[in-house]
Design a protein that fits this description.
The protein has five helices and no strands. It has about 90 residues and is an all-alpha fold.
Length: about 90
């Protein structure tokens, strides 16, 4: 299921990963792929643990509907500010 969602939502990822893997040597490409696979497994295990743990799962289900948007907005705002986009937008 995770693979299907990743592929279905991955047009922008493909545009980044093809040039990345093309520029890497075989060992670096294998290391990058292995790191990606391991980290996907870690995130899936963490997600399972968060929902299976009685107290943490209850907290996630109770507060997740507002925490996730706040985290995404804060993350996006941080990226926009640190990348210099705001300076470019308001440059006179």
């Amino acid at each position: 299921m995770v693979v299907a969602v990743t592929v279905a939502n991955g047009g922008d990822n493909i545009s980044v990963y093809i040039p990345l893997f093309h520029s890497l040597g075989p060992i670096a490409a294998a290391t990058t792929g292995l790191t990606f696979a391991v980290m996907v497994a870690v995130w899936c295990a963490a997600g399972y643990w968060l929902t299976a743990h009685p107290k943490v799962g209850a907290l996630c289900r109770r507060a997740g509907h507002w925490v996730i948007p706040v985290v995404y907005i804060a993350l996006g705002s941080t990226i926009i500010v640190r990348s210099g986009v705001m300076a470019l937008l308001f440059r006179t």
